[in-house]
Amino acid sequence: MSFINNLSKVLGLENRKQTTIDDIENRSHIGGFGALFYGGGSSYCTDKAMLLSAVYRAVEIVSDGVAQLPFEPYIKDASGYKTKLTNQPIYNILNNQPNVRMSRHTFLKIMVTSMLLRGNAYAYIKRDTQGNIEQIIYIPSEYVTIVPPTFLDEPVKYSIAGLQGEVEAKDLIHILNYSVDGVQGMSTISFARHTLGLAHDSEQHARSFFAGGANVGGILTVQSSLTSKQKQELKQSWQQAFSPETGTPNGVAVLEGNQSFQPISINPKDSQLIETRQFNVVEIARWFGVSPTKLFDLSKSSYSTLEQSNLSFLTDTLQPILSKFEQEFNRKIFIGTNIEVKFDTSKLLRADKAGLASYYNTLFNIGVMSPNEIRKELDLTGIEDGDNHFIQSNLLSVKEAANNRPQNSMLTSSEI
Question: Are the beta carbons of 71 and 341 closer than 8 angstroms?
Answer without folding.
Answer: yes
